[in-house]
Amino acid sequence: MFTVNAYAATSATEPLAPTTIERRDLGPDDVAIDIKFSGICHSDIHTARSEWGPTTYPIVVGHEIAGVVREVGSAVTKFAVGDRVGVGCMVDSCRECDNCRKGLEQYCLKGNIGTYGGVGRDGEPTQGGYAQAIVVTEDFVLRIPDGIELDAAAPLLCAGITTYSPLRHWNAGPGRRVAVIGMGGLGHMAVKLAHAMGAEVTVLSQSLKKREDGLRLGADHYHATSDEATFTDLAGSFDLIVNTVSAAIDLDAYLGLLAVDGTLVNVGAPEDPLSVRAFSLIPARRSFAGSMIGGIAETQEMLDFCAEHGLGAEIEVIGAEKINEAYERVLASDVRYRFVIDASTF
After folding, report:
1. What's the CA gap between 62 and 45, in Å, rounded?
2. Crossing angle of helices 185-197/296-309, nearest 10°?
3. Distance CA 122, CA 119 (A)
4. What is the tens place of the pLDDT at every residue in 288-316?
5. Considering only CA atoms, which of 55, 118, 52, 60 is closest in space to residue 91?
6. What is the torsional sign of CA 248, 171, 304, 179?
7. More exposed terminus of the chain, fewer Cβ within 10 Å: N or C?
8. How far apart are CA 155 and CA 163, in angstroms?
9. Phi-psi bin for 91: left (phi > 0), alpha (psi -120 to 50), beta?
Protein backbone atom coordinates (compact mmCIF):
# COMPACT_ATOMS: atom_id res chain seq x y z
CA MET A 1 0.00 0.00 0.00
CA PHE A 2 1.05 3.59 -0.45
CA THR A 3 -0.06 6.81 1.22
CA VAL A 4 -1.40 9.85 -0.64
CA ASN A 5 -2.66 13.27 0.36
CA ALA A 6 -6.41 13.80 0.05
CA TYR A 7 -9.37 15.91 1.18
CA ALA A 8 -12.08 14.13 3.16
CA ALA A 9 -15.50 14.74 4.66
CA THR A 10 -15.58 13.68 8.29
CA SER A 11 -19.27 14.36 8.97
CA ALA A 12 -22.36 15.73 7.27
CA THR A 13 -21.85 19.15 8.84
CA GLU A 14 -18.08 19.70 8.95
CA PRO A 15 -16.12 21.20 6.04
CA LEU A 16 -13.87 18.90 4.03
CA ALA A 17 -10.32 18.86 5.37
CA PRO A 18 -6.84 17.64 4.38
CA THR A 19 -5.98 14.06 5.29
CA THR A 20 -4.00 11.07 4.03
CA ILE A 21 -5.37 7.77 2.75
CA GLU A 22 -3.93 4.41 1.78
CA ARG A 23 -4.16 3.06 -1.75
CA ARG A 24 -3.98 -0.69 -2.26
CA ASP A 25 -0.95 -2.52 -3.57
CA LEU A 26 -0.90 -2.92 -7.33
CA GLY A 27 -2.48 -6.23 -8.40
CA PRO A 28 -1.77 -7.96 -11.71
CA ASP A 29 -4.76 -6.29 -13.42
CA ASP A 30 -4.45 -2.91 -11.74
CA VAL A 31 -3.47 0.52 -13.01
CA ALA A 32 -2.01 3.11 -10.64
CA ILE A 33 -2.86 6.66 -11.72
CA ASP A 34 -1.35 9.97 -10.70
CA ILE A 35 -4.42 12.20 -10.53
CA LYS A 36 -3.94 15.55 -12.24
CA PHE A 37 -7.48 16.95 -12.02
CA SER A 38 -10.69 16.01 -10.21
CA GLY A 39 -14.05 17.55 -11.02
CA ILE A 40 -16.58 18.61 -8.38
CA CYS A 41 -19.95 16.99 -9.03
CA HIS A 42 -23.18 17.78 -7.17
CA SER A 43 -23.20 14.08 -6.25
CA ASP A 44 -20.04 14.72 -4.20
CA ILE A 45 -21.92 17.30 -2.16
CA HIS A 46 -24.96 15.06 -1.67
CA THR A 47 -22.70 12.26 -0.45
CA ALA A 48 -20.45 14.39 1.74
CA ARG A 49 -23.56 15.78 3.46
CA SER A 50 -25.46 12.47 3.73
CA GLU A 51 -28.30 13.79 1.60
CA TRP A 52 -28.84 10.55 -0.32
CA GLY A 53 -28.83 8.34 2.76
CA PRO A 54 -26.29 7.56 5.48
CA THR A 55 -22.64 8.13 4.55
CA THR A 56 -19.81 6.25 6.25
CA TYR A 57 -17.15 8.72 7.36
CA PRO A 58 -14.45 9.68 6.73
CA ILE A 59 -14.99 9.68 2.98
CA VAL A 60 -12.98 11.01 0.06
CA VAL A 61 -15.38 11.84 -2.76
CA GLY A 62 -14.70 12.67 -6.40
CA HIS A 63 -15.56 10.60 -9.49
CA GLU A 64 -14.47 12.87 -12.33
CA ILE A 65 -10.82 11.87 -12.43
CA ALA A 66 -8.22 12.66 -15.09
CA GLY A 67 -4.60 11.73 -14.78
CA VAL A 68 -1.56 9.87 -16.03
CA VAL A 69 -0.61 6.22 -15.53
CA ARG A 70 2.24 5.87 -13.03
CA GLU A 71 2.46 2.04 -12.90
CA VAL A 72 0.70 -1.01 -14.31
CA GLY A 73 0.23 -4.55 -13.03
CA SER A 74 1.97 -7.52 -14.63
CA ALA A 75 -1.14 -8.64 -16.56
CA VAL A 76 -2.26 -5.21 -17.80
CA THR A 77 -2.46 -5.00 -21.61
CA LYS A 78 -4.55 -1.89 -22.30
CA PHE A 79 -2.41 0.81 -20.69
CA ALA A 80 1.21 1.78 -20.23
CA VAL A 81 3.08 4.20 -17.98
CA GLY A 82 2.53 7.76 -19.18
CA ASP A 83 -0.87 7.16 -20.79
CA ARG A 84 -3.53 9.85 -20.31
CA VAL A 85 -6.46 8.18 -18.54
CA GLY A 86 -9.65 8.81 -16.63
CA VAL A 87 -11.83 7.16 -13.99
CA GLY A 88 -15.53 7.84 -13.66
CA CYS A 89 -18.29 6.92 -11.25
CA MET A 90 -17.55 3.21 -10.86
CA VAL A 91 -14.42 1.13 -10.38
CA ASP A 92 -15.82 -2.41 -10.73
CA SER A 93 -18.92 -4.56 -11.12
CA CYS A 94 -19.76 -8.26 -10.97
CA ARG A 95 -18.95 -8.59 -14.72
CA GLU A 96 -21.13 -11.71 -14.90
CA CYS A 97 -24.78 -10.62 -14.86
CA ASP A 98 -26.82 -9.99 -18.00
CA ASN A 99 -26.37 -6.23 -17.76
CA CYS A 100 -22.60 -6.41 -17.29
CA ARG A 101 -22.27 -8.78 -20.24
CA LYS A 102 -24.20 -6.25 -22.36
CA GLY A 103 -21.77 -3.47 -21.43
CA LEU A 104 -24.23 -1.91 -19.00
CA GLU A 105 -22.04 -2.16 -15.92
CA GLN A 106 -23.73 0.89 -14.42
CA TYR A 107 -26.85 -1.26 -14.06
CA CYS A 108 -25.03 -4.30 -12.65
CA LEU A 109 -27.67 -6.54 -11.06
CA LYS A 110 -25.43 -7.05 -8.04
CA GLY A 111 -24.65 -3.34 -7.86
CA ASN A 112 -21.62 -1.68 -9.39
CA ILE A 113 -18.81 -0.62 -7.07
CA GLY A 114 -18.78 3.15 -6.81
CA THR A 115 -15.53 5.10 -7.04
CA TYR A 116 -16.31 6.32 -3.54
CA GLY A 117 -18.71 5.11 -0.89
CA GLY A 118 -18.62 1.51 -2.14
CA VAL A 119 -16.88 -1.61 -0.94
CA GLY A 120 -14.13 -3.01 -3.15
CA ARG A 121 -13.39 -6.66 -3.79
CA ASP A 122 -10.78 -6.42 -1.03
CA GLY A 123 -13.54 -5.58 1.45
CA GLU A 124 -12.25 -2.06 1.98
CA PRO A 125 -14.32 1.09 1.41
CA THR A 126 -13.59 2.87 -1.85
CA GLN A 127 -12.21 6.40 -1.72
CA GLY A 128 -12.50 8.78 -4.63
CA GLY A 129 -10.63 11.35 -6.62
CA TYR A 130 -10.00 14.23 -4.21
CA ALA A 131 -6.55 12.71 -3.80
CA GLN A 132 -3.12 12.54 -5.41
CA ALA A 133 -3.47 9.03 -6.83
CA ILE A 134 -5.80 6.07 -7.24
CA VAL A 135 -5.51 2.36 -8.11
CA VAL A 136 -8.18 0.88 -10.40
CA THR A 137 -8.58 -2.40 -12.26
CA GLU A 138 -7.73 -1.80 -15.94
CA ASP A 139 -11.21 -2.73 -17.18
CA PHE A 140 -12.63 0.37 -15.48
CA VAL A 141 -9.99 2.81 -16.68
CA LEU A 142 -10.76 5.06 -19.68
CA ARG A 143 -8.34 6.40 -22.26
CA ILE A 144 -8.46 10.18 -22.66
CA PRO A 145 -7.76 11.10 -26.30
CA ASP A 146 -5.01 13.60 -27.04
CA GLY A 147 -7.58 16.05 -28.41
CA ILE A 148 -8.92 16.92 -24.94
CA GLU A 149 -6.99 18.75 -22.22
CA LEU A 150 -6.95 16.80 -18.96
CA ASP A 151 -8.60 19.55 -16.91
CA ALA A 152 -11.49 19.91 -19.38
CA ALA A 153 -11.73 16.11 -19.68
CA ALA A 154 -12.25 15.41 -15.98
CA PRO A 155 -15.96 16.43 -15.86
CA LEU A 156 -16.67 14.30 -18.92
CA LEU A 157 -16.24 11.22 -16.71
CA CYS A 158 -19.55 12.04 -15.01
CA ALA A 159 -21.26 15.12 -16.45
CA GLY A 160 -20.31 14.10 -19.97
CA ILE A 161 -21.41 10.48 -19.90
CA THR A 162 -24.48 11.23 -17.75
CA THR A 163 -25.85 13.38 -20.57
CA TYR A 164 -24.34 11.52 -23.55
CA SER A 165 -25.94 8.20 -22.61
CA PRO A 166 -29.61 9.33 -22.69
CA LEU A 167 -29.02 11.45 -25.77
CA ARG A 168 -27.68 8.40 -27.58
CA HIS A 169 -30.29 6.02 -26.18
CA TRP A 170 -33.22 8.25 -27.20
CA ASN A 171 -31.68 8.99 -30.62
CA ALA A 172 -30.79 12.66 -30.43
CA GLY A 173 -29.72 13.70 -33.91
CA PRO A 174 -30.81 15.43 -37.09
CA GLY A 175 -34.55 16.03 -37.19
CA ARG A 176 -34.94 15.53 -33.44
CA ARG A 177 -36.01 18.35 -31.12
CA VAL A 178 -34.20 18.16 -27.79
CA ALA A 179 -34.74 20.36 -24.74
CA VAL A 180 -32.35 20.60 -21.80
CA ILE A 181 -33.70 21.63 -18.41
CA GLY A 182 -31.03 23.53 -16.51
CA MET A 183 -27.85 25.22 -17.70
CA GLY A 184 -25.35 23.98 -15.14
CA GLY A 185 -22.60 21.39 -14.95
CA LEU A 186 -24.71 18.69 -16.57
CA GLY A 187 -26.87 20.97 -18.67
CA HIS A 188 -24.05 22.74 -20.48
CA MET A 189 -22.60 19.37 -21.54
CA ALA A 190 -26.03 18.19 -22.71
CA VAL A 191 -26.26 21.28 -24.91
CA LYS A 192 -22.81 20.74 -26.40
CA LEU A 193 -23.38 17.05 -27.03
CA ALA A 194 -26.90 17.33 -28.46
CA HIS A 195 -25.73 20.07 -30.81
CA ALA A 196 -22.76 17.98 -31.96
CA MET A 197 -25.14 15.08 -32.61
CA GLY A 198 -27.13 17.32 -34.95
CA ALA A 199 -30.30 17.84 -32.92
CA GLU A 200 -32.25 21.08 -32.66
CA VAL A 201 -31.47 22.16 -29.10
CA THR A 202 -33.52 24.30 -26.71
CA VAL A 203 -32.47 25.31 -23.20
CA LEU A 204 -35.17 25.64 -20.54
CA SER A 205 -33.71 27.65 -17.68
CA GLN A 206 -35.22 29.62 -14.80
CA SER A 207 -34.05 32.88 -16.31
CA LEU A 208 -32.33 34.24 -19.40
CA LYS A 209 -29.12 35.22 -17.60
CA LYS A 210 -27.12 32.40 -19.25
CA ARG A 211 -28.76 32.79 -22.66
CA GLU A 212 -25.62 34.09 -24.34
CA ASP A 213 -23.63 31.11 -23.04
CA GLY A 214 -26.31 28.66 -24.10
CA LEU A 215 -26.38 29.94 -27.66
CA ARG A 216 -22.57 30.00 -27.80
CA LEU A 217 -22.37 26.38 -26.67
CA GLY A 218 -24.81 25.18 -29.32
CA ALA A 219 -28.40 25.88 -28.30
CA ASP A 220 -30.73 27.02 -31.06
CA HIS A 221 -33.30 28.46 -28.65
CA TYR A 222 -33.32 29.57 -25.01
CA HIS A 223 -36.42 30.09 -22.88
CA ALA A 224 -37.07 31.17 -19.30
CA THR A 225 -39.26 28.76 -17.35
CA SER A 226 -40.18 31.56 -14.94
CA ASP A 227 -42.26 32.95 -17.82
CA GLU A 228 -45.59 31.09 -17.85
CA ALA A 229 -45.91 31.76 -21.58
CA THR A 230 -43.01 29.37 -22.18
CA PHE A 231 -45.19 26.39 -21.28
CA THR A 232 -48.00 27.60 -23.51
CA ASP A 233 -45.88 28.56 -26.49
CA LEU A 234 -43.78 25.35 -26.44
CA ALA A 235 -46.55 22.83 -25.68
CA GLY A 236 -46.04 19.60 -27.62
CA SER A 237 -42.72 20.78 -29.09
CA PHE A 238 -40.06 18.25 -28.09
CA ASP A 239 -39.14 14.66 -28.87
CA LEU A 240 -36.78 14.45 -25.89
CA ILE A 241 -36.32 16.50 -22.75
CA VAL A 242 -33.26 15.89 -20.56
CA ASN A 243 -33.79 17.14 -17.00
CA THR A 244 -30.41 17.90 -15.46
CA VAL A 245 -31.46 19.71 -12.28
CA SER A 246 -31.19 18.20 -8.81
CA ALA A 247 -34.20 20.04 -7.43
CA ALA A 248 -37.94 19.42 -7.47
CA ILE A 249 -39.71 20.77 -10.56
CA ASP A 250 -43.28 20.68 -11.81
CA LEU A 251 -42.93 17.56 -13.94
CA ASP A 252 -46.49 17.77 -15.21
CA ALA A 253 -45.79 21.18 -16.73
CA TYR A 254 -42.63 19.94 -18.45
CA LEU A 255 -44.29 16.74 -19.69
CA GLY A 256 -46.77 18.96 -21.47
CA LEU A 257 -43.91 20.19 -23.65
CA LEU A 258 -43.43 16.74 -25.18
CA ALA A 259 -44.77 15.74 -28.56
CA VAL A 260 -46.56 12.42 -29.06
CA ASP A 261 -44.20 9.57 -28.07
CA GLY A 262 -41.82 12.07 -26.49
CA THR A 263 -39.71 11.22 -23.45
CA LEU A 264 -38.62 13.25 -20.44
CA VAL A 265 -35.55 11.61 -18.93
CA ASN A 266 -34.26 12.52 -15.48
CA VAL A 267 -30.52 12.58 -14.90
CA GLY A 268 -30.61 15.05 -12.02
CA ALA A 269 -31.33 13.34 -8.71
CA PRO A 270 -33.16 15.47 -6.10
CA GLU A 271 -33.39 14.27 -2.52
CA ASP A 272 -37.18 14.33 -2.39
CA PRO A 273 -39.70 12.23 -4.37
CA LEU A 274 -41.11 13.61 -7.61
CA SER A 275 -44.80 13.30 -8.51
CA VAL A 276 -46.36 12.78 -11.94
CA ARG A 277 -50.02 12.82 -12.91
CA ALA A 278 -51.02 9.90 -15.12
CA PHE A 279 -52.85 12.27 -17.44
CA SER A 280 -49.61 14.10 -18.14
CA LEU A 281 -48.51 10.91 -19.89
CA ILE A 282 -51.57 9.14 -21.26
CA PRO A 283 -53.04 11.59 -23.81
CA ALA A 284 -49.85 11.77 -25.93
CA ARG A 285 -48.24 8.39 -25.12
CA ARG A 286 -45.46 10.23 -23.36
CA SER A 287 -42.78 8.58 -21.22
CA PHE A 288 -41.01 9.61 -18.02
CA ALA A 289 -37.66 7.85 -17.66
CA GLY A 290 -34.37 7.90 -15.81
CA SER A 291 -30.78 7.31 -16.87
CA MET A 292 -27.56 6.74 -14.92
CA ILE A 293 -24.10 7.41 -16.36
CA GLY A 294 -23.02 4.84 -18.97
CA GLY A 295 -21.12 1.59 -19.30
CA ILE A 296 -17.36 1.53 -19.82
CA ALA A 297 -17.58 1.02 -23.60
CA GLU A 298 -20.11 3.84 -23.97
CA THR A 299 -18.01 6.13 -21.79
CA GLN A 300 -15.01 5.52 -24.04
CA GLU A 301 -17.26 6.19 -27.04
CA MET A 302 -18.27 9.48 -25.45
CA LEU A 303 -14.65 10.52 -24.88
CA ASP A 304 -13.76 9.70 -28.47
CA PHE A 305 -16.84 11.62 -29.69
CA CYS A 306 -15.81 14.65 -27.65
CA ALA A 307 -12.28 14.54 -29.04
CA GLU A 308 -13.62 14.23 -32.59
CA HIS A 309 -15.88 17.26 -32.12
CA GLY A 310 -13.52 19.34 -29.99
CA LEU A 311 -15.69 19.18 -26.90
CA GLY A 312 -14.67 19.57 -23.28
CA ALA A 313 -16.31 20.95 -20.16
CA GLU A 314 -16.38 24.68 -19.41
CA ILE A 315 -14.34 24.78 -16.22
CA GLU A 316 -12.95 26.86 -13.37
CA VAL A 317 -9.79 25.30 -11.94
CA ILE A 318 -9.28 25.73 -8.20
CA GLY A 319 -6.83 24.68 -5.51
CA ALA A 320 -7.88 22.15 -2.88
CA GLU A 321 -8.10 24.88 -0.23
CA LYS A 322 -11.13 26.28 -2.08
CA ILE A 323 -13.20 23.07 -2.17
CA ASN A 324 -15.57 24.11 0.60
CA GLU A 325 -16.08 27.52 -0.95
CA ALA A 326 -16.71 25.81 -4.29
CA TYR A 327 -19.40 23.61 -2.71
CA GLU A 328 -21.30 26.69 -1.59
CA ARG A 329 -20.91 28.27 -4.99
CA VAL A 330 -22.25 25.11 -6.68
CA LEU A 331 -25.33 25.26 -4.47
CA ALA A 332 -25.76 28.93 -5.40
CA SER A 333 -25.34 28.11 -9.13
CA ASP A 334 -22.29 30.37 -9.11
CA VAL A 335 -20.01 28.47 -11.48
CA ARG A 336 -19.74 28.34 -15.26
CA TYR A 337 -19.87 25.46 -15.43
CA ARG A 338 -17.77 22.92 -13.53
CA PHE A 339 -15.19 23.30 -10.78
CA VAL A 340 -12.08 21.20 -11.33
CA ILE A 341 -9.53 20.70 -8.56
CA ASP A 342 -5.83 20.84 -9.41
CA ALA A 343 -4.64 17.64 -7.72
CA SER A 344 -1.12 19.05 -7.24
CA THR A 345 -2.64 21.15 -4.42
CA PHE A 346 -3.79 18.21 -2.28
Report:
1. 10
2. 70
3. 8
4. 999 999 999 999 999 999 999 999 999 99
5. 118
6. negative
7. N
8. 11
9. alpha
Whole-number Å distance between alpha carbons of 92 and 143? 16
User: Which amino acid would we find at residue 333?
Assistant: S
Length of the chain: 346
Please return the burial class of 340, using the count of CB atoms within 10 Å of its CB with bins 0-12, 13-18 and 19+. buried
Q: Under DSSP, is residue 170 helix (H, G, I), strand (E, B) or coil?
A: coil
Mean pLDDT across 1-7: 94
Separation CA 189–CA 333 (nearest Å) = 15
Residue 1 pLDDT class (50, 70, 90 cuts): confident
Confidence of residue 271 (pLDDT cuts 50, 70, 90): confident
- Type and span of the H or E element at 317: strand 315-318
Quote the CA–CA distance of 185 and 192 in Å, as a whole number.
11
337 cis-preceded (ω within 30 degrees of 0): yes
Work out the number of other CB atoms within 10 angstroms of the CB of residue 212. 10
